[in-house]
Design a protein that fits this description.
Strand content of chain A: 5-15%
CATH architecture of the largest domain in chain B: Orthogonal Bundle
Largest interface: A-B, 73 and 64 residues
Order of helices and strands of chain B: HHHHEHHEEEEHH
Strand content of chain B: 5-15%
CATH class of the largest domain in chain B: Mainly Alpha
Radius of gyration of chain B: 18 Å
Number of domains of chain B: 2
Shape of chain B: elongated
Largest sheet of chain B: 5 strands, mixed
CATH class of the largest domain in chain A: Alpha Beta
Order of helices and strands of chain A: HHHHEHHEHEHEHHEEHEEHEHHHH
Helix content of chain B: 40-55%
Oligomer: heterodimer
Number of strands of chain A: 9
CATH topology of the largest domain in chain A: Rossmann fold
Number of helices of chain A: 16
Largest sheet of chain A: 5 strands, mixed
Helix content of chain A: 40-55%
Distance between the termini of chain A: 38 Å
CATH superfamily of the largest domain in chain B: NADH-quinone oxidoreductase subunit E
Strand order of the largest sheet of chain B: 2-3-1-4-5
Structural class of chain A: alpha/beta
Number of domains of chain A: 3
CATH architecture of the largest domain in chain A: 3-Layer(aba) Sandwich
Number of strands of chain B: 5
CATH topology of the largest domain in chain B: Arc Repressor Mutant, subunit A
Number of helices of chain B: 8
Strand order of the largest sheet of chain A: 6-5-9-7-8
Distance between the termini of chain B: 30 Å
Shape of chain A: globular
């Protein structure tokens, strides 16, 4: 349970892992052959039975998502892979594409076959130059080896995959904003329903899945439902990549069964908090998930347990903050991000992030007023659950949770008229 | 400024890849940016004419995305992630050293017009913090001294190899890749896909 497992990351240490030669020599594309010998409905059922839940943050059952796709509309069905990874603390999809692009391509092939798609798109973060080159090169290899095109490995199934590059907007990781962007519009979210499964890309039935989710598909098909369910918990089965960053000795991507305690990930895998310091806070699943504190270190990292602890598993991106680091300053930095990335479509998010940003700046710079903390909580209350898409809730998370856990830090800033962790204009790890 | 006939041919190729032409809007803006370094009014008009869109429609999209530049940049764009995971490991100092080396007060373009410095949001490489990219090629675990060396490399025309041993490409080529051209490569020097 507490040991590191290597499924999606099994090839990461191999310097040639991104080539078809290495992928093929280590069992690659065996899952595709097995899937193409099954009916699409059986592949979908297998994914449903595996209990795989989306790895992009929301945790929605993947097989369930595919099950909503109608097959009789006369419209083409599309598969869109969300590779617009940009949530602070999250870096698993980038490494999955850089180190094992064929694993993703094989997952796309199987998934497209299951849902009846003849075209797939990978919406890839524009800033990821190396991942982009590796993926394009892998697609070229796959094409010349007969894995792509009108007849995939000679079977009655065809697929084309197009890489579409993002152009710098965090909001496009939200699935309906991603579709707007892919259609050539500003990346602003759409009203749901209709859900993308029914009316997605070009108003056609569309499955949108995260890179890590799709990369897990070949393993499920090849090794089976029982194997997948032997890892993790009943409701959160399978392996998961945990991305650990911030003030730890060995930041990195670590793969483990869902349900592994946060403490094992931080203390054993990531080598503990650096400089012999104690942990003060950590975000369990990216900057959009409420902060937890040292008392939560034994929380099992699965979807249900992290919610029970008052946060969310999110993308499994754990940002560790040590004692001696000003929490208000860190939260201000997160909030600057949300204010910058708010798309402006809905009022609570656009105005709420603006006011949070300015109030936090005032507090951190020693100009805070007695009522400011309650003002922040009031803004949070007017955003939570009232924004058009999850970005607004994500912006609330660090602010509200840090006040709940570390209100005294805020009060001290205001009372003392200065940051109690002074001396640097930047976050403490600097210099 | 005019668009070369070669670029016009590639534009048609890009449009043909998508089920609906409008999806090519951002790739075409990157293509125009590769040609002129930034998006001027003529570039927006060129793309609008290709897709049958108004200047307002193209302008609305070009102003939404941070990698689409509406004013000139240097031939090297240096991006420093200053979000929390990088800041916890020293990104602010890295940014300050680069700004000082370029004689800038903060984000902006050096007086010779060669280098543009920007603070950017998470580059999805937080395990390698602090991260600095040059023309979108990542340098990892950048110390303040390493940051200064990156700038010296740009100044001297002898770019330092980035994280995976690659030297940053000219900005125009990076923009052509973002447009969906150039293909991939397995090893440096390998031909296009």
């Amino acid at each position: 349970m507490s040991a590191e497992v290597r499924v999606l990351t099994a090839r990461f240490e191999d310097p040639e892992s991104h080539t078809l030669a290495r992928y093929g020599a280590t069992g690659g594309y065996a899952g595709l052959r097995r899937a193409l010998a099954m009916s699409p409905a059986d592949v979908t059922r297998m994914v449903k039975d595996s209990g795989l839940r989306g790895r992009g943050g929301a945790g929605f059952p993947t097989g369930g998502k595919w099950g909503f796709i109608p097959r009789d509309t006369g419209l083409p069905v599309y598969l869109v892979v969300n590779g617009d990874e940009g949530e602070p603390g999250t870096f698993k999809d980038r490494e999955l594409i850089e180190r094992d692009p064929h694993q993703l391509i094989e997952g796309i092939l199987i998934s497209a076959y299951a849902i009846g798609a003849a075209r797939a798109f990978v919406y890839l973060r524009g800033e990821m130059a190396l991942a982009g080159r590796r993926l394009e090169a892998a697609l070229a290899e796959a094409r010349s080896a007969g894995y792509l095109g009108a007849r995939v490995i000679g079977r009655d199934f065809g697929l084309e995959i197009l890489v579409h590059r993002g152009s710098g907007a965090y909001i496009c990781g939200e699935e309906t904003a991603l579709l707007e962007s892919l259609e050539g519009f500003r990346g602003q979210p759409r009203l749901r329903p209709p859900f993308p499964a029914v009316k997605g890309l070009y108003a056609s039935p569309t499955a949108i899945n995260n890179v890590e989710t799709i990369s897990a598909i070949p393993h499920i098909v090849e090794r089976g439902v029982a194997w997948f369910r032997s890892l993790g918990t009943e409701r959160s089965p399978g392996p998961k990549i945990f991305s650990i960053s911030g003030e730890v000795n060995r930041p990195g991507n670590y793969e483990a069964a869902l349900g592994i305690p946060a403490r094992v990930l931080i203390e054993d895998f990531a080598g503990g908090v650096w400089k012999n310091k104690h942990l003060r806070a950590f975000a369990p699943g990216g900057s959009s998930t409420p902060l937890l504190s040292a008392e939560h270190l034994d929380v099992p990292m699965d979807f249900e347990s992290v919610v029970a602890a008052g946060s969310q598993l999110g993308t499994g991106a754990m940002i560790v903050i040590a004692e001696g680091t000003c929490i208000v300053r860190a939260v201000r930095r997160f909030t600057d991000f949300y204010a910058h990335e708010s798309c402006g479509k809905c009022t609570p998010c656009r105005e709420g992030t603006y006011w949070m940003r300015h109030t936090l700046a005032r507090i951190e710079e020693g100009r805070g007023r007695a009522a400011d903390v309650d003002t922040l909580l009031d803004v949070c209350g007017n955003m939570l659950g009232r924004c058009f898409c999850p970005l607004g809730d994500g912006a609330v998370s660090p602010v509200e949770s840090s006040i709940a856990l570390f209100r005294e830090d805020y009060e001290r800033h205001i009372r003392e008229g200065a940051c109690p962790w002074p001396g640097r204009a930047s976050l403490p790890g600097a210099g | 400024m005019t668009i070369s006939s070669e670029t016009a041919a590639r534009a048609a190729e890009i449009i043909a890849r998508y089920p609906q032409p409008r999806s090519a809007l951002v790739p075409l803006l990157f293509l125009a940016q590769a040609e002129h370094g930034f998006l001027g009014r003529e570039d927006l008009d060129w793309v609008g004419d290709l897709l049958g869109l108004t200047a307002a429609e193209v302008g609305a999209v070009s102003s939404f995305y941070s990698m689409l530049k509406r004013s000139p940049t240097g031939e090297y764009v240096v991006s420093v992630c200053t979000n929390v995971p990088c800041a916890l490991r020293g990104a602010d100092e890295v940014f300050a050293r680069i700004a000082a080396a370029l004689a800038l007060d903060g984000a902006g373009t050096s007086s010779d017009g060669k280098v543009t410095l920007e603070a950017v949001e998470c580059l999805a490489a937080c395990d390698k913090a602090p991260v600095v990219s040059v023309n979108y090629e990542n340098y990892e675990r950048v110390s303040p001294e390493a940051a200064e060396a990156i700038v010296r490399g740009i100044r001297s025309g002898q770019l330092l190899p980035a994280a995976e041993g690659e030297v940053p490409e000219p900005l125009a080529r990076a923009h052509r890749r973002l447009a969906g051209l150039e293909g991939g490569r397995l090893d440096p020097g390998e031909g296009q896909a």
